Amino acid sequence: MRLIMELKKNQEIILKIDDLGNNGEGIGRLDGYALFVKDALPGETIRARIMKCNKKYGFARMMEVLECSDSGRVKPKCPVARQCGGCTLQHLSYEKQLAYKEKKVKDCLVRIGGLDAEKVEWLPILGMETPWQYRNKAQFPVKMQKDDSGVLRPVAGFYAGRTHSIIPVTDCAIQHPCMKEILDTVLSWMQEQHVTAYDEVSHRGLVRHLYIRRAYHTSQIMVCLVLNGRQISENLQRTLIEKLSGIQGMTSIFLNINTDQTNIILGKEMILLWGQEYIEDRIGEISYHISPQSFYQVNPVQTEKLYQTALEFAGLIGEETVWDLYCGIGTISLFLAKNAKKVYGVEIVPAAIQNARENARLNGIQNAEFFCGAAEEVVPRLAEELAALADVVVVDPPRKGCDGVLLDTIVKMAPARIVYVSCDPGTLARDVKLLGEKGYEVKKVRACDMFGQGGHVEVACCLQREDKANP
Ligand code: SAH
Q: Distance of CA 153 to CAs 38, 145, 179, 242, Å?
């Protein structure tokens, strides 16, 4: 390619942006060569500086917006929005964020999934009423950093995009305001008690991360300090408990032990320091116990809308056997149980399955049964052992999508409908293509915005087996 040979690091170019990438970066093309530019928006012509060029695409830094037509640019609410790696779309109006997410889902399903757009009912994206202060979970890295007067202090915040340097932020615009009080409390305890923060280069220092969860409906709070060490003195435990337990809603204080040299936040061992082992929240009419290791959606208001959509797509009349694969703490399973004859949930994390069973009891639900293990191992075995029928299968896998063995097993179980809930339209499209080749046609698609100000999108898809009638 002629052009790449010509582009040099630090060279300035004029670029028209016409698309957004998966992480919210603007994409512009020079002679067909794609350049990704963070903070640039479609509709803008910008001055940019070349940072890096690969064979097929390159990266440039946004220097100045020269011209702009209906790009939807707004002033970010958060003063560190540009440096922080958390929110990738704060500079885009919320209305345009929703339009972008809707388009991304459709593009993936048509381009990668091979869907005929005309044959699918594209329901409008479920947007948030207030796309701020919505998150119920935060994981803040902690580090020793010099303040303005040169004194080394513990700070917490977020990693700057693509790096491990911390931007101190305690009042994040998308987190619940209680997070600030908790962070300030723990940081002042560290300072008073001379507790050090972890340094990933020397692998020394104690506090690595602060992991916080808050239940939306009950306001219960869980705090977990991730430590690079097995022991903290009784005095430290007592002073920490004294400080944190005074915060309104504090329900559960954990220590997590993670002495590995790793980027993974939580270590295997959890020690309950104070309070109870779970917090309790509700989605719709169902109550849930949530342990620190269990997955729980981060946006409680939107989660209810997403599950409501899954329920509609499942089209239950009360006589069905439903499988909820990748079920976490049984959230979707129990949400569907009152409209089904039987629900089976499968999940890999033992603490989550324990929560799921407790949650069934807590809600007096007797027609739900839960199995622990990898879905791709457990489901083929159970399908045979139980000679289990499946009228509807719900899957809600992590970003990498469903395992191929699992998809084959689902096809063999031959449910009339599959409800696919996904947090990655790319892998959803890949899996839907495969299911399409085996006789499942996508009927309805609805995106749901769980991550306002960020680039990720959640989507629910209803697939119908061609030889089985509609409900
Ligand atoms: N449906 C739940 C959880 C969805 S998140 C909810 O809405 O809350 C995806 C879940 O899949 C996580 O709980 C994760 O622990 C689980 N998981 C990941 N890999 C798995 C596998 N191979 N088999 C079963 N569960 C898995």
A: 31, 5, 19, 22
